[in-house]
């Protein structure tokens, strides 16, 4: 057995970082996966894109690169992209990344705050694409008031959330209703989507609202230290059938 006293300071620091990451769901997507999802989701130079948990900005960068490929005007991109991030330190990283790529000091694209609060005040905003990697946080570690807002919004969508509901469930459901008709959702999600009972309502919700869903399974863990099996979720042809289905 390895005792704590036998461990080096770096080992203790790494363990602490892992625990903090697990509690806040902070595992970041590789640029290659972000590029793949954004290239699939973004089809036109005038598409508007939402990233509901933008973290360090990897999806925003991939979105910008995709818009460039499609011929989007550089000065318009800050109006085409919206990123939400609850941690101010991470939001600052996204802002710096965005500014470095675009070449100006435009910060309006990044909103520092809780995604669920943002949604509650922006239900009329619609996007052609939603991309991202939502945090995977257990109900017990889901901080207030974010948890109460998320669960209340889920209930308005006809869900019956319980104490097993992980934070990624409301992230996916509420990201979905941010889409314009015909929109696309491309996300990194836990493989639990296909397995657990608390996600059964979400599965039905998504099947009802999209014309086509493709799920790419991955044989290897794609997130260092995450210990989480994931899938790539690609949903096309959003159908706006209202808040209560």
Account of the 3D structure:
- The protein has 245 residues and is α/β, with parallel strands linked by helices.
- It is built from 9 helices and 7 strands; from the N terminus they run H-H-E-H-H-E-H-E-H-E-H-H-E-H-E-E.
- It has helices at 9-24, 31-41, 58-69, 77-80, 88-102, 115-121, 146-156, 168-176, 200-209, and strands at residues 49-51, 81-85, 110-112, 127-132, 179-190, 210-217, 230-238.
- Strands 3-2-1-4-5-7-6 form a 7-stranded mixed sheet, sandwiched between helices.
- The protein is globular, with a radius of gyration of 18 Å.
- Based on the coordinates given, report the CATH architecture: 3-Layer(aba) Sandwich
Please indicate the count of domains: 1
The secondary structure category is alpha/beta
Shape: globular
- CATH level-1 class: Alpha Beta
Question: What Rg do the Cα atoms give?
Answer: 18 Å
Oligomer: single chain
Strand content: 15-25%
Strand order of the largest sheet: 3-2-1-4-5-7-6
Number of helices: 9
Helix fraction, binned, reads 25-40%
The fourth-level CATH homologous superfamily is Vaccinia Virus protein VP39
Within the CATH hierarchy, at the fold level, what is the topology? Answer: Rossmann fold
Q: Mind summarizing the main beta sheet? A: 7 strands, mixed
Mean pLDDT: 82
Task: Determine the N-to-C terminus distance.
Answer: 53 Å
How many beta-strand runs? 7
Low-confidence stretches are 1-25
Order of helices and strands: HHEHHEHEHEHHEHEE
